[in-house]
Protein backbone atom coordinates (compact mmCIF):
# COMPACT_ATOMS: atom_id res chain seq x y z
CA UNK A 1 0.00 0.00 0.00
CA UNK A 2 1.25 3.49 -0.71
CA UNK A 3 2.53 5.54 2.19
CA UNK A 4 0.73 8.61 3.40
CA UNK A 5 2.43 11.67 1.92
CA UNK A 6 1.98 14.10 4.79
CA UNK A 7 0.41 14.40 8.19
CA UNK A 8 -2.27 16.96 9.00
CA UNK A 9 -3.22 16.36 12.61
CA UNK A 10 -5.89 18.64 14.08
CA UNK A 11 -6.34 18.32 17.84
CA UNK A 12 -9.19 20.32 19.33
CA UNK A 13 -9.07 21.86 22.81
CA UNK A 14 -10.22 19.58 25.68
CA UNK A 15 -8.78 16.50 23.94
CA UNK A 16 -6.04 14.39 25.50
CA UNK A 17 -3.64 12.92 22.92
CA UNK A 18 -0.51 11.21 24.23
CA UNK A 19 2.75 12.04 22.47
CA UNK A 20 3.59 8.32 22.21
CA UNK A 21 0.58 7.63 19.98
CA UNK A 22 1.08 7.00 16.25
CA UNK A 23 -0.90 9.43 14.09
CA UNK A 24 -0.44 9.37 10.30
CA UNK A 25 -2.41 11.15 7.62
CA UNK A 26 -5.21 13.73 7.85
CA UNK A 27 -6.76 13.24 11.31
CA UNK A 28 -9.17 15.48 13.21
CA UNK A 29 -9.73 14.80 16.90
CA UNK A 30 -12.74 16.65 18.31
CA UNK A 31 -13.11 17.83 21.95
CA UNK A 32 -13.29 15.28 24.73
CA UNK A 33 -11.41 12.50 22.91
CA UNK A 34 -8.71 10.53 24.70
CA UNK A 35 -5.89 8.84 22.73
CA UNK A 36 -3.66 6.63 24.89
CA UNK A 37 0.05 6.01 24.33
CA UNK A 38 0.87 3.30 21.76
CA UNK A 39 -2.50 3.76 20.03
CA UNK A 40 -2.32 3.98 16.21
CA UNK A 41 -4.56 6.05 13.95
CA UNK A 42 -3.66 5.77 10.27
CA UNK A 43 -5.54 7.64 7.55
CA UNK A 44 -4.38 6.04 4.26
CA UNK A 45 -7.40 6.47 2.00
CA UNK A 46 -8.59 9.84 3.24
CA UNK A 47 -9.21 11.94 6.34
CA UNK A 48 -10.42 10.46 9.63
CA UNK A 49 -12.64 12.64 11.84
CA UNK A 50 -13.30 11.50 15.42
CA UNK A 51 -16.54 12.58 17.05
CA UNK A 52 -16.53 13.94 20.57
CA UNK A 53 -15.65 11.82 23.61
CA UNK A 54 -14.11 8.82 21.86
CA UNK A 55 -11.54 6.75 23.75
CA UNK A 56 -8.70 5.00 21.90
CA UNK A 57 -6.82 2.74 24.32
CA UNK A 58 -3.28 1.31 24.23
CA UNK A 59 -2.36 -0.73 21.14
CA UNK A 60 -5.73 -0.03 19.53
CA UNK A 61 -5.33 0.51 15.80
CA UNK A 62 -7.79 2.48 13.70
CA UNK A 63 -7.09 2.48 9.98
CA UNK A 64 -8.90 4.01 7.02
CA UNK A 65 -7.31 1.60 4.53
CA UNK A 66 -6.81 2.24 0.86
CA UNK A 67 -8.78 -0.64 -0.72
CA UNK A 68 -8.39 -1.76 -4.34
CA UNK A 69 -11.62 0.03 -5.34
CA UNK A 70 -10.45 3.27 -3.72
CA UNK A 71 -7.05 2.95 -5.40
CA UNK A 72 -8.81 2.75 -8.79
CA UNK A 73 -10.83 5.86 -7.94
CA UNK A 74 -7.66 7.76 -7.01
CA UNK A 75 -5.91 6.59 -10.20
CA UNK A 76 -8.89 7.90 -12.21
CA UNK A 77 -7.98 11.40 -11.06
CA UNK A 78 -10.25 11.96 -8.07
CA UNK A 79 -8.31 14.19 -5.66
CA UNK A 80 -9.64 13.09 -2.28
CA UNK A 81 -11.84 10.31 -1.05
CA UNK A 82 -14.59 11.16 1.47
CA UNK A 83 -13.54 11.24 5.11
CA UNK A 84 -14.17 8.39 7.53
CA UNK A 85 -16.35 10.04 10.15
CA UNK A 86 -16.32 8.21 13.47
CA UNK A 87 -19.33 9.02 15.63
CA UNK A 88 -19.39 10.21 19.23
CA UNK A 89 -18.73 8.22 22.42
CA UNK A 90 -16.99 5.23 20.81
CA UNK A 91 -14.56 3.10 22.82
CA UNK A 92 -11.68 1.27 21.12
CA UNK A 93 -10.25 -1.07 23.74
CA UNK A 94 -6.72 -2.43 24.13
CA UNK A 95 -5.36 -4.21 21.06
CA UNK A 96 -8.42 -3.93 18.80
CA UNK A 97 -8.00 -3.25 15.08
CA UNK A 98 -10.78 -1.37 13.33
CA UNK A 99 -10.83 -0.73 9.56
CA UNK A 100 -14.62 -0.33 9.25
CA UNK A 101 -16.07 1.69 6.37
CA UNK A 102 -18.53 3.41 8.73
CA UNK A 103 -18.61 3.80 12.51
CA UNK A 104 -21.68 5.32 14.16
CA UNK A 105 -22.14 6.48 17.75
CA UNK A 106 -21.70 4.75 21.13
CA UNK A 107 -19.97 1.56 19.94
CA UNK A 108 -17.52 -0.56 21.90
CA UNK A 109 -14.73 -2.52 20.20
CA UNK A 110 -13.46 -4.84 22.91
CA UNK A 111 -9.91 -6.16 23.43
CA UNK A 112 -8.26 -7.92 20.48
CA UNK A 113 -11.32 -7.58 18.23
CA UNK A 114 -10.89 -7.05 14.49
CA UNK A 115 -13.31 -5.28 12.13
CA UNK A 116 -12.45 -5.40 8.42
CA UNK A 117 -12.84 -2.65 5.80
CA UNK A 118 -16.09 -4.00 4.34
CA UNK A 119 -17.96 -3.82 7.64
CA UNK A 120 -20.30 -0.95 8.49
CA UNK A 121 -21.11 -0.38 12.16
CA UNK A 122 -24.27 1.55 13.09
CA UNK A 123 -24.96 2.79 16.64
CA UNK A 124 -24.74 1.13 20.06
CA UNK A 125 -22.95 -2.02 18.86
CA UNK A 126 -20.50 -4.12 20.88
CA UNK A 127 -17.85 -6.19 19.13
CA UNK A 128 -16.76 -8.70 21.76
CA UNK A 129 -13.24 -9.57 22.86
CA UNK A 130 -11.39 -11.55 20.19
CA UNK A 131 -14.23 -11.35 17.64
CA UNK A 132 -13.15 -11.07 13.99
CA UNK A 133 -15.47 -9.58 11.34
CA UNK A 134 -14.08 -9.80 7.80
CA UNK A 135 -17.08 -10.36 5.47
CA UNK A 136 -19.04 -7.50 3.94
CA UNK A 137 -21.90 -6.67 6.29
CA UNK A 138 -23.83 -3.90 8.03
CA UNK A 139 -24.48 -4.30 11.75
CA UNK A 140 -27.91 -2.98 12.77
CA UNK A 141 -28.24 -0.77 15.83
CA UNK A 142 -27.55 -2.31 19.26
CA UNK A 143 -26.00 -5.49 17.86
CA UNK A 144 -23.75 -7.43 20.23
CA UNK A 145 -21.35 -10.04 18.80
CA UNK A 146 -19.54 -12.19 21.34
CA UNK A 147 -17.93 -15.54 22.12
CA UNK A 148 -15.98 -18.09 20.11
CA UNK A 149 -18.95 -18.82 17.86
CA UNK A 150 -19.47 -15.10 17.21
CA UNK A 151 -22.97 -15.29 18.63
CA UNK A 152 -25.15 -12.32 17.84
CA UNK A 153 -27.98 -10.70 19.77
CA UNK A 154 -29.59 -7.34 20.39
CA UNK A 155 -28.33 -5.39 23.41
CA UNK A 156 -30.69 -5.35 26.37
CA UNK A 157 -28.91 -2.48 28.11
CA UNK A 158 -28.08 0.48 25.96
CA UNK A 159 -24.55 1.95 25.96
CA UNK A 160 -23.71 3.91 29.10
CA UNK A 161 -21.81 7.16 28.95
CA UNK A 162 -18.03 7.07 29.41
CA UNK A 163 -18.01 10.39 31.27
CA UNK A 164 -16.49 9.00 34.47
CA UNK A 165 -13.74 7.17 32.58
CA UNK A 166 -12.97 10.26 30.47
CA UNK A 167 -12.80 12.47 33.59
CA UNK A 168 -10.47 9.97 35.29
CA UNK A 169 -8.18 9.71 32.23
CA UNK A 170 -8.15 13.49 31.84
CA UNK A 171 -6.70 13.73 35.39
CA UNK A 172 -4.32 10.75 35.29
CA UNK A 173 -2.76 10.66 31.80
CA UNK A 174 -1.05 14.09 32.03
CA UNK A 175 0.73 12.92 35.20
CA UNK A 176 2.46 10.01 33.44
CA UNK A 177 2.68 10.88 29.73
CA UNK A 178 3.72 13.75 27.51
CA UNK A 179 0.74 15.14 25.61
CA UNK A 180 0.36 16.64 22.16
CA UNK A 181 -0.88 20.20 22.44
CA UNK A 182 -4.24 21.19 20.94
CA UNK A 183 -3.35 22.87 17.65
CA UNK A 184 -6.70 23.72 16.13
CA UNK A 185 -9.24 26.28 17.31
CA UNK A 186 -12.68 25.74 15.75
CA UNK A 187 -13.62 29.35 16.55
CA UNK A 188 -10.84 30.66 14.30
CA UNK A 189 -11.17 28.01 11.56
CA UNK A 190 -14.76 27.25 10.62
CA UNK A 191 -14.04 24.32 8.22
CA UNK A 192 -13.43 21.28 10.41
CA UNK A 193 -14.46 18.59 7.95
How do the helices and strands line up, and which of them pair or pack?
Layout: E1 8-11, E2 16-18, E3 22-24, E4 26-29, E5 34-35, E6 40-43, E7 48-50, E8 55-56, E9 61-64, H1 68-75, E10 84-86, E11 91-92, E12 97-98, E13 102-103, E14 108-109, E15 114-115, E16 119-121, E17 126-127, E18 132-133, E19 137-139, E20 143-146, E21 151-154, H2 163-176, E22 179-180
Parallel strand pairs: 1-4, 2-5, 3-6, 4-7, 5-8, 6-9, 7-10, 8-11, 9-12, 11-14, 12-15, 13-16, 14-17, 15-18, 16-19, 17-20
Antiparallel strand pairs: 2-22, 20-21
Average predicted confidence as pLDDT: 90
Strand-pairing-aware structural class? mainly beta
> Which word captures the global form?
globular
Q: What's the arrangement of strands in the largest beta sheet?
A: 21-20-17-14-11-8-5-2-22
Name of the CATH superfamily: Hexapeptide repeat proteins
Radius of gyration in whole Å, from Cα? 16 Å
Strand percentage lies at 25-35%
Q: Architecture in CATH?
A: 3 Solenoid
Amino acid sequence: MPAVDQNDIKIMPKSIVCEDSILRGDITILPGCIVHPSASIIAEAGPIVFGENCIVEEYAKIVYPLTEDQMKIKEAGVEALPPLIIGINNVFEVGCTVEASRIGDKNVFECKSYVGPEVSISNGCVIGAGVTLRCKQHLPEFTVIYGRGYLQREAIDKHVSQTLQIDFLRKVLPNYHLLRKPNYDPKKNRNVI
